[in-house]
Write a structure and sequence with these properties.
388 residues; alpha/beta; 15 helices; globular
Length: 388
């Protein structure tokens, strides 16, 4: 047989073998597809080239999350599931309500790649096996140690489910895939257009008020979280106090000094517009209120902050989401250190990401070039005490 014939024979045999092995797997029906963002070429989607079968060890092991709270909590639970699936080669799955929340309130469904439990049950005719495993047999991930232990226990029958408890934020895993997060969550075009229009209006207003030629400016998004967080914060960090005006002004002034060769326009978004107007904006001509502050439709506010070049925020998963989407090479993010001996999940990110800075109430930078070790953060639940 000639060399050319041998090559053609091997190629034909390889193609036959691939098709034969594929035919042995229970394929997902071609006429039934998950949401548009479910792309079979994506790493997460590769888990679903075939339907899951019980008792197949790692291939029968899922990671999901109990999700409680508003958009920010849903975002970080979703991202934690995505990151854990990628890191440990597990099957990611999420509840349909959480996917609906992400799509309804902010994000383009075409980029949401994790399938819902309902879709998987229906498509692969699992007969409730997965739903029952999630509801009654989940192994709750309340610490990193538990995650490691559970990863050594592969199922030889049925499905295994590892479940983040109480809308957990697994900052260690999500930090590892930081540069990919904007590809996981793409804001709807209508919100991106509104954000771009608002920034254009504010740029014109800034130019009129200051007489500055602001043709080439950079925007700094400021997220001021108030309302329920004054009650929420002591549960996370006992003895801590909320970020006051001093922090925001110190962060503004630090950025202006850091980037004194640039023209900066500061754009404030808040759930307490009056407090922000009085305590952050005041008589400043370089800080403007923006957004709608509509908690029922937070996509516009999120898009405004994400469209900025730099970020200032104190705490909260919404502010963390906005800063994450805005974070880009050469950009800066300043966040709050309550200096009460505790570490927030936001500080974990800030100490481990380039261009992120941690600042206390008085404008002192802390944890400079000092990484903070990670914890598994669980958002406090109304029916459960913190730390129990």
């Amino acid at each position: 047989m000639s060399k050319k014939s041998s090559v053609l024979f091997l190629a034909a045999f390889s193609l036959f073998l691939i098709l034969y092995l594929a035919a042995q797997q229970p394929q997902i029906p071609a006429l039934v597809r998950p949401p548009p963002g479910f792309n079979l070429t994506d790493p997460e989607s590769m888990h679903w080239l075939s339907c899951p079968e019980p008792g197949q060890g790692r291939k029968s092991t899922f990671v999901t999350a109990d999700i409680y709270g508003r958009l920010g909590n849903v975002v970080w639970s979703y991202l934690s599931v995505v990151a854990a699936a990628r890191r440990y080669n597990l099957r990611p799955v999420i509840d349909q309500q959480s996917l609906d929340t992400l799509e309804k309130e902010a994000f383009d469904a075409n980029f949401l790649r994790v399938p819902s439990v309902d879709w998987l049950e229906r498509t692969c005719a699992l007969g409730g096996l997965l739903e029952n495993a999630i509801q009654f047999e989940s192994k709750l991930l309340t610490s990193k140690e538990r995650m490691i232990r559970y990863l050594e226990e592969w199922p030889d029958a049925g499905f295994a489910v590892l479940k983040y408890d109480f809308s957990a934020t697994d900052s260690e895993l999500t930090t590892a895939f930081w540069d990919e997060l904007p590809n996981e969550l793409v804001l709807k075009e209508k919100y991106r257009k509104k954000a771009a229009n608002q920034l254009r209006i504010l740029q014109k207003r800034f130019q009129e008020q200051t007489g500055t030629d602001a043709a080439d400016v950079e925007f700094v998004g400021i997220h001021v979280r108030r309302t329920d967080y004054t009650e929420h914060l002591p549960h996370i960090l006992p003895g801590s106090t909320a970020a006051g005006p001093e922090f925001f002004h110190a962060a503004i002034n630090w950025l202006k000094e850091k980037m004194r060769k640039k023209t900066l326009i500061f754009v404030a978004v808040s759930d307490d517009r009056q407090w922000t107007q009085e305590n952050v904006i005041g008589n400043r001509t370089d800080v403007f209120m923006a957004g709608s502050s509509d908690v029922e439709e937070p996509g516009e506010d999120l898009a405004i902050l994400a469209a900025c070049n730099h970020s200032i925020f104190a705490y909260g998963t919404f502010g963390l989401t906005a800063a994450s989407l805005a974070s880009r090479p050469g950009g800066h993010t300043v966040l709050f250190d309550p200096q009460n001996g505790g570490v927030t999940k936001e500080m974990e990110f800030g100490a481990n990401l380039p261009g992120w800075h941690i600042m206390d109430q008085h404008g002192n930078l802390t944890y400079q070039n000092t990484p903070i070790s990670f914890h598994l953060y669980l958002h406090p639940h109304k029916e459960r005490k913190w730390g129990t």
